[in-house]
C-alpha cells in the first residue's frame, strides 16, 4: 500500500470511529466437532462410504496429516459411489448435540447478549446444515471454517480457510488463534466493540493455540477427558496459560459454571464517551492501532 493510500485509509477509519460509540460486550468462540456436536462431522460423512472403498491417495493424505485434502478425496469417492447430497445433509442433521449445547448457545445469544462465533476445521456446508436444523443460525455473528459447496455435479468441494506456516501449533489450513485474534481486533477497529471477556470453548488439540493467546480476563473452556484438557493440564507450567481454565462436562454444566462467575454478575462496563478526555485518548489509541495495521503487510 502506498503511504498516500494508507493515510487515506487511516483517515477514513478514524472518521468512522467517530460515528460509533464504543460498546463493551462479551464473546464466546466455539469449536464445532465434539464441542457443539457429539461426533466428528468429517468422519461421520466418511463412514457413508462402503468399508472396502478407499484409494491410495486417501491413505497417503491421511498418513501425511493433510486432513483437508484427505476429506476432499473422501468427497470425491462419495461422489464416485453416487452418495447423494441429500444423504450427506441428512447424516449431518442427525448428529446429536453435546448435551446442553443448543440451550447454552440460545441462552448466551438471546438472554445474556453475548456475541457468538464458531471457529472450526469442519466445513461451511456441514456447519450451516446442522445449525439450520437446530434453529441456531441466527445465534452466530460469524462462522470461520473451510468454505465448501456442492458443485453442479453434486460433488462436495472444500477449500482451506487460509494458508499459514507461522503457527506450529496449528494445521496449515486453519490457525484458530489467528482467526480469534483477527476477529477481536476487527470488531474493535471497525465496529468499536470491545470484549471484556472472551470465552473459548473446545475439546481438541487444535483448540490449544487460541487459548494460549487469551488474556487474564478471558476463559479457556476445555471439555473434560478430551485432548485439549489433557494437554493443558499436562503442560500447565510450561504453557503459561493466562486465561482462567474452566473444565466442562456438558453444555448444562458449562452454563452453570458461567452463570456462577462473579465477572458475569454485572452488565459490561459502560461505554467510553468520545467527548470526554478519556474518549479522546481512546480515539488516539485506535487511530494509531489502525495506522499500525495499515502499515504492516497482512
Ligand atoms: Mg473439536
Ligand atoms: Zn495457531
From TrEMBL:
Keywords: Hydrolase, Magnesium, Metal-binding. The active site is at residues 31, 33. It holds the Pfam family Put_Phosphatase. Mg(2+) binds at residues 31, 33, 203. GO terms for molecular function: metal ion binding; phosphatase activity. InterPro entries: HAD-like_sf, HAD_hydro_PyrdxlP_Pase-like, HAD_sf, Pase_PHOSPHO-typ. It comes from the Eukaryota. Its cofactor is Mg(2+). Substrate binds at residues 42, 121. NCBIfam families: DKMTPPase-SF, HAD-SF-IB. Belongs to the HAD-like hydrolase superfamily. PHOSPHO family. PANTHER family: LP01149P, PHOSPHATASE, ORPHAN 1, 2. This is Uncharacterized protein. It comes from Drosophila ananassae (Fruit fly).
